[in-house]
């Protein structure tokens, strides 16, 4: 007997009715989980700043840098990697709601730029590029868990057909709702949650003595190695990817994994190097 899971969850929590000519505005699980990632991430950084004796006054500035760099990077990355024609024809779509389309590789690039700008002005406080980035990987891992669960609630980024008993039939996905499929979003969400605990264990063990770049390296290798493998279980996001042995997500994951390996090796050779 074939068993599977019927996934009929609505992507919307509730709808704010029309008021004074504006609306109605649907409140979606994805948006709530995306915001929750930032809110909990901020509390994690407050805890770290307290434990390592850093000024809590910098938390608001760091949060602002992260929100802007992640959202702008993820949006630009989506259009650059998957819809370049839209970016050039209608660039305003990058900043206009409903923000459908966020690329994790673009978020990484945006984050690197944002953290470089942030750390430049706070080098004297010990908040070098790697000090900040290592600790923020905790929030990135937890945020990735929430975002991928948001994808599940949206019934998007679905997997390929499967006869495994935990296959999902996505009732709200009109293109892929006929047969059970891998819940690839759930795989990635759980993987990110496990990574969060691994990174927290590393930080809790070393705290201020955490080897520079170690947590960044572990994050990159873990996330993008699994991303590369999970892509074999997922439907392509864009039609052009069907013409290649690897899809865009896999091509972009390879340099991220290699960079992560480099950071791990580097952290072992220069564990306390203070690099901006």
TrEMBL record:
It is found in: Cell membrane. Its EC number is 2.5.1.145. Pathway: Protein modification; lipoprotein biosynthesis (diacylglyceryl transfer). One of its GO terms (cellular component) is plasma membrane. Keywords: Cell membrane, Lipoprotein, Membrane, Transferase, Transmembrane, Transmembrane helix. Pfam families: LGT (PF01790). GO terms for molecular function: phosphatidylglycerol-prolipoprotein diacylglyceryl transferase activity. A 1,2-diacyl-sn-glycero-3-phospho-(1'-sn-glycerol) binds at residue 148. The keyword Lipoprotein applies. The keyword Transmembrane helix applies. It is a multi-pass membrane protein. InterPro entries: Lgt. Belongs to the Lgt family. This is Phosphatidylglycerol--prolipoprotein diacylglyceryl transferase. It comes from Dyadobacter luticola.
